[in-house]
Design goal:
It is a single chain. This protein has 204 residues and is α/β, with parallel strands linked by helices. It has a single domain, classed as TIM Barrel, CATH 3.20.20. The chain contains seven helices and nine strands, in the order H-E-E-E-H-E-H-E-E-H-E-H-E-H-E-H. Homodimer.
Length: 204
């Protein structure tokens, strides 16, 4: 576990080359690295199998580096909650390969690593910590019910003025909440609509 604690190994759940489906970079090719381990506990999470890090074998970051450079210049680190672990060694290795590095995070743990794009998606049960609000390039708020609009505004008040703001329907209730999001964005045009387009395209 010492190597995992130092970020030299990470509990790798899966890695795959696909099209980014959400947010600002939707429609672009990227290599996704999904890191296991998350204690944020969103009841609607669509990758609950990522929560228990012990079910995902510690993998040397050299393996991730070697695989990633075969596919894409853009690497997306996701989870789980990747900031559970020290992202410094992995991101430094990716940078040394000349790659652009994105992270998708709840911000529930301190920000580590070197990032070209930070997608912050705060959750009510474990709020972001540290200075990630001011460093985020994109705020992606998941809308499951009407109260989530209030939470979204509370979170938007904490990010920088240059941070892009997205409202995304939770997939299982998309038919109910998408019209609410459309109406909300038309009334509050600082927000944009984000859809999980990869699910409509039936790709990972």
């Amino acid at each position: 576990m010492d190597l995992v604690d130092k970020g030299a190994m990470l509990p790798l759940m899966e890695e795959f080359y696909t099209i980014q489906g959400e947010g600002f970079h939707k429609g672009t090719a990227a290599y996704f690295v999904r890191i296991g381990g998350c204690d944020v506990g969103c009841h609607w999470c669509d990758v609950k199998e990522s929560w228990n890090a012990e079910t995902h074998p510690p993998t040397a970051i050299e393996h991730i580096l070697s695989n990633s450079k075969k596919y894409s210049d853009t690497i997306v680190i996701t989870g789980g909650e990747p900031l559970t672990w020290d992202m410094g060694p992995l991101t430094q290795g990716l940078k040394a390969q000349g790659q652009h590095i994105h992270i998708e995070t709840s911000g529930a743990y301190p920000l580590t690593g070197v990032w070209d794009w930070i997608c912050l998606s705060p959750k009510k049960n474990k709020l972001p910590v540290g200075d990630i609000y001011q460093k985020a390039h994109e705020l992606k708020m998941i809308v499951y019910n009407k109260h989530d609009f209030i939470f979204a505004e509370e979170q938007a008040a904490k990010v920088s003025k240059d941070c892009m703001l997205y409202l995304q329907p939770e997939w299982s209730v998309r038919e109910k909440v998408t019209p609410l999001i459309v109406e909300y964005v038309m009334k509050h045009p600082k927000w944009k609509v984000s859809l999980q387009t990869h699910k409509y395209l039936n790709i990972p």
